[in-house]
Specification:
This protein is of the alpha/beta class. The protein is built from eleven helices and eleven strands. α2 packs parallel to α3, α2 runs parallel beside α11 and α8 packs across α11. About 2% of the residues have low confidence.
């Protein structure tokens, strides 16, 4: 990994405490393929939570530079207009799986724009961690068990995202209670928890379990600013946990998807085979496309009741969070 584009003077790296101090709620909006773009990220950051997007959403690769410039410009303008409530930091997700042939160029672009937080997925890469660490960027790696967590920290990740059962997209099978417990037995660094988080009570519960942050995505598919087709948003609004299926067929890596989208693609959600993890492909001559035709979603979508702007969603999360906290403090 070439680090020649790293800033000569590293920016001040984020810590869990420093990141939390810049947030309205201890919440990171997870990066979602196709769905997460500049509009969603900017709205999330302005609302006071971390907004993120996969670098691969910017196609062609040169578009990533434009997106990061736009995000920086609009958030800086927001901070000048509202110094009393500055925007939260943003994050970029890097897929470090060997199938990603643009990783090095995407890393260089993130270094150029001094991205404060990077989320890595589908592999632990020591060279990627080193380059960002030298630039002062916090890198959090998503994991589905303690073994992968150990591996990521040993290779230099600066934080972890525990992806528990019920999370949308690529997810694990472990209970959040078990997963956070096993990680906190040996790790005291930055930790976020993902898995069916879609209300303020769940954010508080994530903190109670020992996480520094909650990590939520599926609820924001129904955001007005999300780059999702109307049918996708409608399925989130009308769906619930029973409408989610866990399968490796779509990308070769196990994940949670909407049964309704599988049926529309001509698949039987109750009779699915396995995908190829080495190539992350469906394995068919003319397969439905992951994320475009087959829609990821987590088990928490039963909490979503309408398509709304991010600001409205986060206002509700904040109200629920503080009400739940007050009940505990007065019980």
């Amino acid at each position: 990994m070439n680090s020649s584009t790293a800033p000569a003077v590293p920016h001040t790296p984020l810590t869990a405490a420093a990141l939390r101090s810049r947030l309205r709620l201890p919440l990171i909006g997870s990066p979602m393929f196709i769905v997460s773009g500049p509009e969603l990220v900017i709205a999330q950051c302005k609302a006071g939570i971390v907004g993120s997007f996969p670098a691969l959403n910017a196609r062609p690769q040169s578009l990533l530079d434009e997106w990061l410039h736009r995000i920086r410009e609009e958030l800086d303008a927001h901070d000048r207009a509202y110094p009393e409530r500055p925007a939260a930091p943003f994050a970029v997700n890097q897929i470090v799986h060997k199938s990603n042939d643009r990783l090095e160029r995407d890393v260089e672009t993130c270094l150029k724009h001094r991205v404060p937080l990077v989320i890595t997925s589908l592999g632990a890469r020591e060279d990627v961690y080193r380059v960002f660490r030298e630039a002062g960027t916090l890198v959090m790696h998503d994991v589905i068990n303690a073994r992968f967590a150990h591996k990521a920290i040993e290779k230099g990740a600066g934080g972890l995202i525990a992806v528990a059962a019920g999370a949308g997209g690529h997810a694990g099978l472990l209970s959040p209670f078990a997963l956070v417990q096993e990680i906190r037995n040996w790790y005291d660094g930055p930790l976020a928890l993902s898995g069916a988080i879609a209300n303020g009570r769940s954010i508080l519960a994530a903190e109670a379990l020992g996480a520094d942050f909650a990590y939520a995505g599926s609820m924001f598919i129904a955001a007005s600013e999300a780059n999702a087709v109307e049918a996708y948003k409608a399925d989130i609004v009308t769906g619930d946990a029973e409408g989610i299926v866990y399968t490796s067929l779509i990308t070769g890596v196990h994940g949670n998807y909407l049964k309704s989208s599988l049926r529309r693609a001509g698949l039987d959600p109750d009779n699915l085979g396995n995908g190829d993890p080495s190539t992350m492909t469906f394995g068919s001559a003319a397969p439905p496309k992951a994320w475009k035709d087959i829609w990821g979603a987590g088990q928490g979508i039963g909490a979503v009741r309408a398509v709304e702007p991010v600001a409205v969603q986060v206002d509700r999360l904040a109200q629920e969070y503080h009400e739940a906290r007050a009940r505990l403090e007065h019980s």
